[in-house]
Automatic annotation (TrEMBL):
It holds the Pfam family DyP_N. Residues 52-188 form the DyP dimeric alpha+beta barrel domain. InterPro entries: Dimeric_a/b-barrel, DyP_N, Dyp_peroxidase. This is DyP dimeric alpha+beta barrel domain-containing protein. Belongs to the DyP-type peroxidase family. SUPFAM superfamilies: Dimeric alpha+beta barrel. Residues 85-95 have a biased composition (Polar residues). It comes from the Bacteria. GO terms for cellular component: cytosol. GO terms for molecular function: heme binding; metal ion binding; peroxidase activity. Keywords: Heme, Iron, Metal-binding, Oxidoreductase, Peroxidase. The lineage of its organism: Bacteria, Bacillati, Actinomycetota, Actinomycetes, Kitasatosporales. The keyword RNA-binding does not apply. It comes from Streptomyces telluris.
Length: 473
């Protein structure tokens, strides 16, 4: 079975044969399906030796390859784990995931010429890097030190248990020779709510809405959550591209990866929720709706466009669009999830074309919380390591941040006032926005925009190559 990047008939990994099966064995894990990464360590690497002496960098990467599991292994492990849990056993252990990405500078340090790299990779954002991106980010001089430097590679290690993740990190450290330097480290740590759902630091369920690529995942979603109103199915080409430098272009694929360290000022966000509730004169239980209007979901993940109060059934609902909320009387246009996935209601592109901006988010929270209930929440030191896989960074991550989140005029709707920036991640001049006072009723009130509570501290673009590429070095 050949690999099709455009087919809308989803690939069944269990029944894949020929090239499609080899592709899954050659692909890094965590791209087609998120890998467990409650404990996550990130190493940012610099290869000291110049392009004329690439041996150490090449050897390091070749030795790393055997520590990495393939997409196929990940999928099989998840299946075995679920099987043993349903048999009443404790669940088989899954090994940590190791992911590797290279920047353009990293490829040059492997001894490839500038021309070869420029011709091989099509993505303009990858080639220029995040430091040169025009996303209204803070100046690079304000980024954390590691991100100000030239990063050549990223290594991700993620798993369920801190012990096995640390052991794996040590194995990787042991492979380093003197010219392979760790210039930055990040530690991700999952946060969960009382029901065990993954949340981000503002307290909202995160990571729920994802494009799905595999037949088995789509079947599970249609049984558990439903896919009849919002179909999460996307072709493999939404995240995969041929690995241009790998031995076999029929079976070797990779993905462009974005990492952004986003610090969250939780105290400022709480204030924004309170200020909005006060400005709209929301009372008692209805005050929670203020935060839901900023995000587009209540803390428990209930979509605001579907109901005025939290508590929708489990699993967290994702089978919805904004078709019943065209004038945004329920969920405001500027709510984070409506901005970053208008689900066909953006007004600038036909619904099908609009979907090409979606990406596979694989973020993880960082920083430990010491505040208890009633304490003042932190103003810094915690946040989100935003990560996502793309087949085209310009059209997906950058488009979402720039043309949607940072644009006060998106989405477009008749002669309504401009929605304003995404209150969670919008960067740039924040104009006052209009918010529905009563859920589902037309009257809206203009309120000054909340201050930015998310600060970008640095980031970079990488290409996550196929395993045969790493082995071939
Ligand atoms: C969804 C929070 C950064 C894109 C969500 C959700 C939350 C959230 C709570 C709802 C859960 C879900 O639907 O899966 C945050 C926070 C961020 C952040 C606190 C920063 C600290 C970003 C960035 C982007 C982004 C940088 C992209 C530029 C998305 C997308 C969705 C989403 C595409 C799914 C929307 C949907 O399909 O309905 N985010 N996010 N987020 N976020 Fe973010």
């Amino acid at each position: 079975m050949p690999v099709s990047l455009t087919s809308t008939d989803p690939l069944s990994w269990e029944n894949a044969t020929g090239d499609a099966d080899t592709m899954l064995q050659n692909l890094q894990a965590n791209i087609l399906k998120g890998h467990v990464r409650d404990h996550l360590r990130i190493l940012l690497l610099q290869f000291d030796k110049g392009p004329e002496d690439p041996t150490e960098a090449r050897t390091f990467l070749t030795r790393l390859a055997p520590l990495m599991k393939s997409a196929k292994t990940q999928l099989q492990e998840v299946k075995d784990h679920k099987q043993s849990e349903s048999n009443g056993e404790s669940g088989t252990d899954t090994s940590p995931y190791v992911g590797v990405g290279l920047t353009k500078g990293g490829y040059l340090r492997l001894g490839l010429s500038e021309q070869a790299v420029d011709e091989a990779f099509k993505d303009a954002a990858f080639k220029r890097g995040m430091k040169e991106a025009d996303l209204e980010d803070p100046p690079t001089t304000q980024w954390e030190g590691a991100y100000q430097k030239e990063i050549h590679a990223i290594v991700l290690v993620g798993g369920a248990e801190p012990g096995s993740v640390s052991t794996k990190v040590q194995e990787i450290e042991d492979l380093r020779t003197s010219s392979i330097n760790v210039i930055g480290r990040e530690t991700g740590l999952a946060l969960r709510d009382a029901a065990g759902r993954g949340i981000e630091h503002f307290g909202y369920v995160d990571g729920r809405s994802q494009p799905l690529f595999l037949k088995e995942d789509l079947e599970e979603e249609s049984q558990n959550g439903g896919t009849s109103i919002w179909d999460p199915k996307e072709p493999l080409g939404r995240v995969l591209v041929e690995d241009p430098l790998a031995p076999n272009n029929a079976t070797d694929f990779g993905s462009y990866f974005v990492l952004r360290k986003l610090e969250q000022n939780v105290r400022a966000f709480r204030k924004a929720e309170d200020d909005l509730a006060n400005a709209l004169n929301l009372r008692d239980g209805d005050r929670e709706r203020a935060g839901a209007m900023l995000v587009g979901r209540f803390k428990d993940g209930t979509p605001l466009t579907l109901q005025a109060t939290p508590g929708a059934h489990s699993p967290v609902m994702n089978d919805f669009t904004y078709a019943g909320d065209g004038a945004a009387d329920k969920c405001p246009f500027q709510a984070h999830i409506r901005k970053t996935n208008p689900r066909g209601s953006g007004g600038f592109e036909p619904p099908k074309a609009e979907r090409r901006h979606l990406m596979a988010r694989r973020g993880q929270t960082y920083g430990e919380r010491t505040d208890g209930p009633g304490d003042e929440p932190p103003e810094g030191g915690v946040g989100l390591l935003f990560m996502a896989f793309n087949s085209n960074l310009v059209d997906q991550f950058e488009f979402t941040q720039l043309n949607w989140a940072n644009s006060s005029r998106f989405p477009k709707f008749g002669s309504e006032p401009a929605p304003g920036l995404d209150p969670v991640i919008g960067q740039g001049d924040r104009i006052p926005a209009t918010w529905p006072q009563v859920w589902g009723e037309e009257a809206g009130q203009e309120v000054p925009a909340p201050a930015e509570a998310v600060t970008m501290k640095g980031g970079e673009y990488f290409f996550m190559p196929s395993l045969p590429f790493l082995r071939s070095l």
